[in-house]
Amino acid sequence: MQFNSNFNDIAENYLFAEVAKRAAEYSKNHPDKKVLKLGIGDVTLPLVPEVINALHAGVEDMSKAETFKGYGPYEGYGFLRESILDYYKSCGVELALDEIFVSDGAKSDLGNILDIFSKDNTVLVPDPVYPVYVDTNLMAGRKIIFANANGANGFLPMPDYKVNADIIYICSPNNPTGAAYTKAQLKEWVEYANKKNAVILYDAAYECFIEDENLARSVYQIEGAKTCAIEFCSFSKIAGFTGTRCGYTIVPKTLEKDGFSANKMWLRRQATKFNGVPYIVQKGAAAVFTEQGRKEINQNIAYYKNNAKIIAECMDELGIWYTGGKNSPYIWLKCPNNMKSWEFFDFLLNNAQVVGTPGAGFGSNGEGYFRLTAFGSEAVTREAVARIKSVLKK
């Protein structure tokens, strides 16, 4: 027996676990201090009534022989996939039902999708980046190269035709930077991927925060994307399913190479390794796209957008450079006074009792930057902003 030695190439501690550990240690040593957390991108508002009602209805279904459900379809129940299909239509995107696959979340699928690709593929990810993109490929032993995201390009790197990549990760609006590609910029990435015969793994988990019509809600709003892109989305941020777990992946039937169909391979993979999302959860997820569900959920999204605005206005007042804050729940700020990322983390924790996420944890280009999230309560957000102002205005 031998273990997978590729695990030696990943960080021993997951970034957010380290943030939580340091915050917990501070609270233990300072029980009189109230720590405000704007670090991990977890939602705080409860599930909306329409979703709760649907979950209860699903529970009732499971209590009666005539409506009981056992194993479900590997791709997800038709009623949920139909609602997702209609949601895409509202964005001007036409899909086939068998291109939609329901899962337990975008994070899972972003790692699991790698099963259908050769370990010999070269992977291109932006730096800074959501750690899952890097770690899952390191576990498989793939070669990873980095696109240079930085302050000069607004943390939106563009394709370089001198670079050859097989798998390309794009997250827009981006985690951690909050930056979002315009449709014109995404068109350049689609053209690059098609020319290089590469695939774009497009993380659209935060599309619900987009307000600007020049930004894409889906990569499939870009001509040519269906021959080079797989899209991942989640109910975690649009509907607060971080603890309920449900997402979906779009694998176009036109994404093929050398006689292999990505769509057929993904279905085969799921049928082998996944038994689907619980019926009850899928009932709740389908309620997200009803008229009443959308109305209630839009109120929650507006709540988080207002939190982002509060944080962004604080940065403006302090004269701190940042991206995000609009079209995104994240504010990615340049650490003041040339502080390093973890140095600023300790500064805020010790002086303001506010927890954020050090940019260095997202890659070398994240050093000197810091991420704050709008997913806290409004009261916590306002108090945290007041504390940040008090310690940085001194």
Question: What order do the helices and strands come in, and which of them pair?
Answer:
Layout: H1 15-29, E1 36-37, H2 49-62, H3 78-90, E2 100-103, H4 106-112, E3 122-127, H5 131-140, E4 143-148, E5 167-171, H6 183-196, E6 199-203, E7 229-234, H7 235-239, E8 247-250, E9 256-257, E10 260-261, H8 262-273, H9 279-287, H10 291-318, E11 322-324, E12 330-334, H11 341-352, E13 354-355, E14 357-358, E15 369-373, H12 378-392
Parallel strand pairs: 1-13, 3-4, 3-5, 5-6, 6-7
Antiparallel strand pairs: 2-8, 7-8, 9-10, 11-12, 12-15, 14-15
Report on this model:
Helix content is about 40%, strand content about 15%. The protein contains twelve helices and 15 strands. It has a seven-stranded mixed sheet with strand order 2-8-7-6-5-3-4, with helices on both faces. The chain is globular and about 60 Å long. The model has no long low-confidence stretch (mean pLDDT about 95).
Mean pLDDT over all positions: 96
Point out poorly predicted stretches: none
Strand pairing plus helix content: what structural class?
alpha/beta
**Count of helical stretches:** 12
Q: Kindly provide the radius of gyration, computed on alpha-carbon positions and rounded to a whole number of angstroms.
A: 21 Å
Order of helices and strands: HEHHEHEHEEHEEHEEEHHHEEHEEEH
Relative helix content: 25-40%
Number of strands: 15
- Proportion of strand residues: 5-15%
Shape: globular
Largest sheet: 7 strands, mixed
Alpha-carbon distance between the termini?
59 Å
Widest β-sheet, arrangement of strands: 2-8-7-6-5-3-4
